[in-house]
Amino acid sequence: MSWTVGFSALASGISAEEPILALLAPRLQTGGLAGEPGYVPTVIVQDFFDFSLYLDIDQADLEVWYAVPAPAAHRVSRPVVLAGDKMGTLLAKNADVLVTMDGHRRELKNAGLFARDGMIEKVGPTAELPATADLVLDLRGHILLPGLVNCHHHLDQLLTRNLTAGQNTNLFPWLQAHYRVWASRTPEDTRAAALVGCAELALSGCTTVFDHAYVFQNGCKVDDQITAAAELGVRFAVSRGSMSLGQSKGGLPPDDCVESEEAILKDSIRVIETYHDPAPGSMLQIVLGPCSPFSVTADLMRESAKMARHYGVHLHTHLCETLDEERYTLQHKELRPVAYMEALDWVGKDVWYAHAVHVNDAEIRLFATKGAGICHCPSSNMRLASGIAPLTKYRDAGVRTGLGVDGSASNDGSNLLIEVREAMLLARLKMGLLPPEGPQTVLSTSDPLRAKEWLTAREALEIATIGGASVLGRSDIGSLEPGKCADFFTLDLNAIAYAGGLSDPVAAVVFCAPTGARQTVVGGRLIVQDGEIATIDMAPVIREHNRNAARLAALDV
Prior knowledge:
This protein is an alpha/beta fold and 557 residues long. Helices cover 30% and strands 22% of the residues.
């Protein structure tokens, strides 16, 4: 009927709720609720289709999880997987191929990994791993890869996917069609949107999500996104972003969509001091993210940089996304966007930019010299006709480079595996263009002298894993090695999409049409199980999100 992980015992009569199953575990230290120190064991309940789990917080010495009849709205038709902060042990075994992305880029056959409390202890052939663990995943017929790292997103924009007014425009009119809609959302709208976005990312193999949140009106706070990400279970980085330069002062957003700089800086301190966790294995880190050169003042950029460096957090903004932006900074600052960033002390190892499409060779060298990072967003750049970022040049110059899905209103999806494929394809398209859009050469793309220009499938996966980890300033994610976080996902190699392509399974992940993750594990915790979100019943969330989106789409703003 059921099985449990950790200390377990059947119980009855302990609570007025007449528990059907209880999991009892000695506390390792005071605490044990989410976000507090302590041990909350894994519970996996099979066949309890009409039950939910609750934590009895009145027990002084024990943590007690009860399985009781669930409200109808929250019932599920599949096994439920719940977990706490500490995961015990996990064994993933028998994967046809395991891609490590370690320093030697090893790819192992019939392999797996062993993790304890969310951190990897051993990676290797299945025969060399421990025989069992608290949680065992048999991955025959699967490929196992490091979790993908999403370096740029706007989760609240899932509320305005495919908005009619923004379907056929470039960036500036697209933004003007959306600003007031975004500013009209409620905290409840944000929660549902963030859950949907994080779920969609997890289903594409993403384990670490960065969200560039910057519109805070109508009672909304970055806390809304933080709460939702924790509910779903992804590793999260989020910006306390900002807009302060309204139309009356020469900016692009309407005045009623921006905040005062005093309020922005005060709340930035609150968010950093409340939430930022710099420790290895951290599930939550804070970034300061003034939105763009055309929506914040120079003073706010400077003060944000000073604050970030005081607290040791990173900085993020949009940069060089379109030629309109370049014209804006030339007109208002008499500088190209990159030169403007340099004047504000916004080029450094603690900074990364979204897009960086329209840059010259000298600016690329500056990024490389000073250590600034880039997030390439291929779908969004194509959707808004922004251009093609010089991805190969960034890599050749040694610029830290990652991938992002960007906001779902300029992408209309949150599938990071699609971005991996499109990054490879766009790099090849740019390689075939004539100057000045393409390389300064008359040689055919088939010429042996141009062989190194071809972005390979493995290089695209590298950008999405260890590349993204580097962009976010993290050394504990992005590859599968002892001492790093147990963040990974699996794909079923028997899927139709890969049929006929398995002479090179690793390349098939990128060359063939993307499939959904079968399992996604974050810190040793199953977030996706058998191709479905395992931590939350998404059906009521989707219904709520669609109602919210329909209400906002009907606004006359």
